[in-house]
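Journal club side-thread
Mid-discussion, someone asked how the predicted structure for our own chain would compare to the paper's figures. Pasting it here so we can look after the session.
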Amino acid sequence: LDMVNRNLEVNTENAQAWLLRGRINRLKGNHAQAVQDLQKSQGLSPGAAISRELAMAYRQTNQMATAIGELTIALRDQLAPLSLWTMLEQFYMDAGQKSELTKFYAEAIAKYPNSEFWYYRAGQFYLQDQNAARAEELLAKAWDITRAKSNPSAIVFDLYLETLWMRQQYDKLLGIASQYTDTPLGSIAYAQMGQTQAKLGNRQQAVQHYHKALDRCGGDDALITGTLRNMTQAVGAGEAEKWAAQKLSTAPDALTANMVMFHVAGEKTDYNTAVEHLNRALAAVEAGSAAHRYYTMLKAVTFVQAYIKTRDKKYLSEAVQQYEKMLVDQPQDVSA
């Protein structure tokens, strides 16, 4: 901050220096001063970066209407970055302005008609607003766009099928999902088919679909947890545990089965068993890989949970060791 101030003493017309000083003051909590600095920068050289910082500063001084106005004006620029659109979306959500969000999504879709992103976001909004019919229309469009790509969006696929399930469009859901069972979307397809068969009263077929969904998860923990959550609600966690136990009886180091048992044990707060399975999963993936780093983080979190439950300091010590290991293995990762 001192360096920036000295720079401004020499040249008070330096827009970048005012921007930097405003950002520093905002991060330090000097929000009123930040607004003044950023307004000076904007007056000298308006742009998306300044609008973003100024909007955040206005919000932090409880001037939400002014923050929204700042972003609305900035988005008149045809070259405004996507980050400003997503920030305005969040501000409307935080302010609870549903009517403005409706207009916003229409404008965003008009601006980016060939991207599934805003159809997906609008679909989420209408689902939360209890308008599943409108959500289905928007998510169908999002799916039409993404399915033509080499790697269709898994989150769009999942939410579209979930919306069809909510709308009781069971035949349509099964017809779409069955086309993707042998693709990278296979675990999602089978899980949604399992949920549908359970709803139709076909429990045995539902369980079979869920088992196939787990078979296709690999070591992807997001897919594993998503399938487990869906499966637990539809047929119970016991079916997942039985599937994993059967797999481990013949292949004790099976990655997916050990991760399933890790999560099942964690839900039971049996953290010692959870760590045992997680250790097997760690041994099954390459050291230094993204999966290995993620599993190490899960191990640290599990030890913390065990400490909270028991107040046994040995768990706290184990958690610290895992975090220290993470810092050594990935010193540039500030989230570690």
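Post-session note: The chain has a mean pLDDT of 92.
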